[in-house]
Write a structure and sequence with these properties.
mainly alpha; two-stranded antiparallel ribbon; Rab-GAP_TBC_sf; Helicase, Ruva Protein, domain 3; Tbc domain containing protein; 2 strands; Cyclin A, domain 1; single chain; Rab-GAP-TBC_dom; GTPase activator activity
């Protein structure tokens, strides 16, 4: 009886062990299967989330990301997107490409940047003596408080520009052109721009140089190109809006009285910092650069306020034109303004006025 009992117990134990091994194996397989299903589910969720993000992104942003992801940047496509307003999250990178701080061939980017920084250090060494410091310092004191901590950097950039370009030197208003570049390139902390890295300052210097060298006759002795544009502006107003032209002539208001500043700093003083940056998007990506579009921007600007101006005498008109109600413009207003300027260019750029 005892022997039978022991045999029965051993048999039962064997059966239990076999059962446990089968069940254990099954559970392990189920566990692996569950893990696989969970992994696949996560992948599906990720794909769906990515699709939702893509759907929620504006088409312009999707297109821009595709352009920037390529090894060689298509400059025409990049300009086309930036002309209508560059997405803020990519503006710094896009501007650096358009203003030739970064190469189109992305495989050469690291070496390209390194050489530019070395070049900027060399320029600082060669032109270490500051030029036009008094006038530059006065102009920078008038900049907004959020730029306080980067004024020394701005002064250095403007002084180096003047030293390297003696034909023009520093002209009052050039600092206005540097400001949007600083706002895009430099970092911000607690609503103030902070001291830049050497690379950031080199980028700002090279970008300013790229812009100003394309319009250097705006700033050479007696600023001849600006006076040419003032004459062209007067003729265009007469052609586009004869009644406004006649009224301004009757009250003795001429383009020199109000538009010299517009051309001198490409209208940047007339708008808020945000809209100034938006305007700069278009100017740096325009196929003809800064040389042509500003004329038609000025036409569009004065024509926008034609009705108000035709109700004013000399003093009232001058005060109004020097303090235009443009500081609170929305993105839509700026886009409409730029589009109107482009339309005027399409209509009149090939006329005898040009």
């Amino acid at each position: 009886m005892d022997i039978l009992t022991e045999d029965a117990i051993r048999g039962a134990r064997s059966i239990i062990a076999l059962y446990n091994s089968i069940v254990g194996y099954t559970n392990e397989e189920e566990k692996k299967e569950d893990e696989k299903e969970e992994t696949e589910s996560k992948e599906i969720i990720k794909k769906e989330e990515k699709k939702e993000q893509e759907i929620s992104k504006p088409p312009t942003l999707i297109k821009l990301e595709k352009i920037l992801s390529k090894e060689y940047i298509d400059i025409k496509q990049l300009k086309d997107i930036c002309w209508v307003g560059c997405p803020s999250e990519y503006r710094r990178e896009v501007w650096k490409i358009l203003l030739q701080c970064h190469p189109l061939d992305q495989s050469k980017k690291e070496n390209f940047i390194s050489k530019r920084i070395e070049k900027y250090e060399f320029i600082q060494t060669k032109f270490g003596e500051e030029r036009n410091v008094e006038q530059i310092s006065k102009d920078l004191l008038r900049t907004s408080e959020d730029l306080n901590d980067v004024r020394e950097s701005m002064k250095r950039i403007l002084s180096l520009w003047a030293a390297r370009h003696p034909a023009s030197g520093y002209v009052q208003g050039i600092h206005d052109i540097l400001i949007p570049i600083i706002r895009v390139y430099y970092d911000k902390k607690e609503n103030k721009y902070i001291k830049p890295t050497l690379e950031q300052e080199a980028d700002a210097f090279d970008s300013l140089t790229f812009v100003l060298e394309s319009v250097q006759t705006f700033y050479t002795c007696q600023q001849p190109r600006i006076f040419e544009l003032l004459k062209q502006l007067e003729l265009l107003i007469k052609k586009i809006n004869p009644s406004l032209s006649n009224h301004l002539e009757a009250i003795d208001v001429h383009t020199l009285n109000y538009a010299f500043r517009w051309f001198n700093c490409f209208l940047l003083r007339e708008f808020s910092p945000e809209q100034g940056i938006r305007l700069f998007d278009t100017l740096i990506s325009d196929q003809k650069g800064f040389a042509e579009l500003p004329l038609f921007l000025c036409v569009a600007l004065i024509n926008k306020y034609s009705s108000e101006l035709q109700q004013k005498d000399f003093g009232e008109a001058i005060i109004f034109l020097q303090n235009l109600p443009t500081s609170n413009w929305t993105n839509e207003e700026m886009d409409t303004f730029i589009s109107q300027a482009h339309l005027y260019r399409e209509l009149y750029s090939n006329s005898h006025l040009m």
